[in-house]
Every structure is written in structure tokens, then in C-alpha cells.
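Z., the sequence and structure:
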Amino acid sequence: MKLVDNMKMYNVESLGLECEKPILGIFGTESFTNISKGEVTGDRRRAVRKIISLLKGIEPRLVYIIPRGKTCLYATHLLRILDIPFSLIIPCQGYFDNLRKFHNLKFEKAVDASQSIIILSHETLDLKNSKRIEDEAENFIVERAELILSIYGSTIPQRYKNLNKKLNDVEGDVIFLNYSQ
């Protein structure tokens, strides 16, 4: 487990990682700098700088990401800009059918820029299976990534706290990036 606080140029060596150009798994909260929760525009700029610095220093050869929520959708935008190949992990068929217009546009750009799209299940998402399907998608990434990056701010929903607790128990390298600090 690595916590990233101070802004500096990161690389595989400074982070104490064993693998150069690792396969990276990215997780992020639903919101990305939430003004209503006290996070300000400066937090977004600081967060973007931290994420870009990490991505440039790590130089992943591939990124697995579930394009759920603003943080991960924004991360796909940064991956596209930095020309880092990424694969979208879709928990199940129709998982993203009800996106708002804003999210739908960003999702379509992520789909267009992705190296591949992996749909894990052909089940229909409902209240009974949503937790299991999301857990399976998260496990898919954890099992395949050589390094995990968890991005969150000052407001962390319970589901994401549970994910971070699970990531804390992963044997491999995990970087926890709190962009609000």
C-alpha cells in the first residue's frame, strides 16, 4: 500500500514498485471534486496534476478501468491525452444504458479511444445482482493488474470505502490517491 500526498515527480523506483511499465487498474469515486461537499476548483487542478504525474511516472503499458462515475470518466480522458492504452471493463450488458447526457458523451469518447472493451456478463442488471456484478468487475481488474490506483476525494461513499478496504488487503502494489489533500 502506498499513499500519495505530496506533489512530486513519481516514477516506478520512487514508488518502490517492482514492475516497470505495469498493467494498471484504476478505480475512482462517483464524483470528481464535489463543490457541494466543500471541494473547490483548485482541488480539481491539483488532482489532475497528481494523476498526470503518477501516470507519466508509472508509464503503464495498459490500463483496466470501469468507466463508472466522474473520476474514472475523467481518467479515461487523461489516458487518451497521454496516449496510454486502456481497456474498458463493462460489468454487464446494458450497465451504462441510463447515463445522463454529460456522462454519455464522455463515455462515448472513452469507448472510441479504448484499445478494447470487455463485457463480463450478459446478465441484465437489477437490484438483486448489482453488487455481485460490480464486485466481479472489480475483482477482474484486481486479478489482472500489476498495480492498482485508487482515486478519491474528501467525501468517500460507503461502497468505495469497502472497495479501498478490499484493496488494502491485496498482495500487490496499490496506490491510494486522495486528491483533496
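The beta strands are 2-4, 23-28, 62-65, 86-90, 116-119, 147-152, 173-178. The chain has one domain: 2-10+22-143.

Let me know what you think.
H.
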